[in-house]
Amino acid sequence: MEIDDLASTSGEWLRGIGPQSDIVMSSRIRLARNLADFPFIRQCNDIDRANIDSTVRQRLGSNKALRDLTFIDVATLEALDRQFLVERQLISREHANSDGARAVAIDGQEQLSLMVNEEDHLRIQVMKSGLDLDGAWAQINELDDQIEQQLTYAFHEQFGYLTACPTNVGTGMRVSVLVHLPALVITNQIEKVFRSLQKINLVVRGLYGEGTQAMGDFYQVSNQITLGKSEKELIDQVGDVVPVVIDYERKARKFLIEEDQNELFDQVSRAYGMLQTARRISSEETMHLLSRVRMGINLGLIGDLEIPQVNELFIQTQPAHLQKIHQSALSTDERNIERANFLHRNLKSQDN
Amino acid sequence: MKCQKCSKSATFHITDLTGDGLLALHLCPDCAKHYLQPEVEDTETPKITGVLSDQLKLEQTAEELQELDSKKCPICGISFGKFRQAGRLGCPHDYVFFGAELKPLLESVHGSTEHVGKRPQRGAYDTESQTELIRLRGEMKLAVSEENYEKAQEIRDRIRSIEDQT
Questions:
Q1: What are the chain B neighbours of A205 within 8 Å (beta carbons)?
Q2: What's the gap in Å between the CA of B104 and the closest CA on chain A?
Q3: Residue A30 annotated as part of some ligand binding site
Q4: pLDDT band with cut points at 50, 70 and 90 for residue B38
Q5: How far is CA A63 from CA A50, A69, B147, in A?
Q6: Domain that holds residue B139
Q7: Where are the domains of chain A?
Q8: Which residues of A are less than 8 Å from B110 in CB distance?
């Protein structure tokens, strides 16, 4: 599988199916793991990194269940391809921008991704469409067991799985649910939700993880604590709270409709109209407008467009995707024009 | 002198550089702790270094802090000072070597210091040989950098023999 092949497809998590998929885009679980007999990445030299990379590839390749994963050598990729993998949520920004030997292994459906030499030697990730944390856990737990048969993890009786940053030690597990909350943003309720979540040790971040702004009203809700609670407890903590957030969002949507349906319909229609007719449009504005359109579809205000198509547009209109689809590097201004053309082509066909 | 924020006595005298110039603050320990706590950041690194500096500044003298900062892991060579700045540890052995310093940090971040979750299915952990492997790899690096290839070869053979046993 080549990176170019990925540009024309879309990941399993964009399918727009699964429980609560009108509001929950995806569920993701990642496990941080380190090999017992190497220093953590910060103290590794180039030889260590290359050794870790080759050890992981070699050992995983000898396991039947892991043999089908495709390894991509991130170190030798062009910056555009690395950015593409970040937009695809297959690698982190840190992994894309760091130095030295590093790789990512993915499966054909883009549900599994295994980053080698990120902040930890291994970052294992499973992504599911909609709210499906139990499904994600079953899959990642099995994958972790298979990997552990091939590699000896750094593990301590008291502290659990040892990680480069003490904020990940113990289970090494981060459970994240990506939620779409436009009505809570419009009604200025979003800050209140964040504050309540923080009180119960949950973190809210933007679409691309740490340090990123929320784009298109998408927010990641995840656990902060990784030590002292079992994996099941951590999953339940996030899994129990997300339905409450979903309920708030539904109530806010209901309120907006009851308050002034014409105003809401006007906002959604204008957003849809701008996406269909703009001649030049930034990534940020596209996300904002697509967010309104996505909500409009859920509320039955737009009949000729489906959620999976909008989910794909969110990803495909981002800078690296746009350039991969266009098959050439583009300046910011050229991208803004190409993005408008791309939206025009994809949304116009819906009218036919 | 009284604390500027409450009526308790001020024991912390802080000079802070703000956008408007120097700001002199006289605070009690509680208000100082609150003031020194960094604003909530959405990245993990500033948060952990913030928790660390907060704990250490208030509980240790400058000499104690300097001594602690110079403490170095014999396996990976990372000093506690370097960990404090970067928020990242150097090797698995650091959890043992800096155990006493890390426990209050873990308690503060996670509210616990005991893992209760999943554990690897393979139980035969020979942590000593794993630590030995990290140490030998460090020695090999040094031998190569000193162009002492004979020694490096010798170390590599020892690494291989340990790896073959595990």
A1: 42
A2: 11
A3: yes
A4: very low
A5: 21, 10, 38
A6: 127-165
A7: 3-254, 260-347
A8: 169-170, 225-228
8 A C-beta contact, residue A80 and residue A323: yes
Domains contained in chain B, number:
3
Token pair, residue B140, equals 């090999």
- Judge whether B38 lies within some domain: no
ipTM above 0.85, yes or no: yes
Q: Is residue B166 less than 8 Å (CB to CB) from chain A? A: yes
CA dist B140 and B146 (Å) reads: 10
The residue to which tokens 């549900």 are assigned: A111
Domain for residue B77, yes or no? yes
Q: Known binder of ligand: residue A216?
A: no
A93 is in an annotated binding site: no
Query: Chain A contacts of B111, Cβ < 8 Å?
Result: 225, 228
B45 and A169 within 8 Å at the Cβ level: the answer is no
Q: In terms of pLDDT, which residue wins out, A117 or B3?
A: A117
Is B90 among the domain residues? Answer: yes
**Domain spanning A3-254 has what CATH number?**
3.30.590.10
Q: For the whole model, what pTM was predicted? A: 0.83
- Give the mean model confidence (pLDDT) for residues B117-124: 79
Contact A38 B121 (CB under 8 A): no
Whole-angstrom distance, CA of residue A42 vs CA of residue B25? 37
Residue B71 maps to a domain: yes
Output DSSP code: residue A74: G
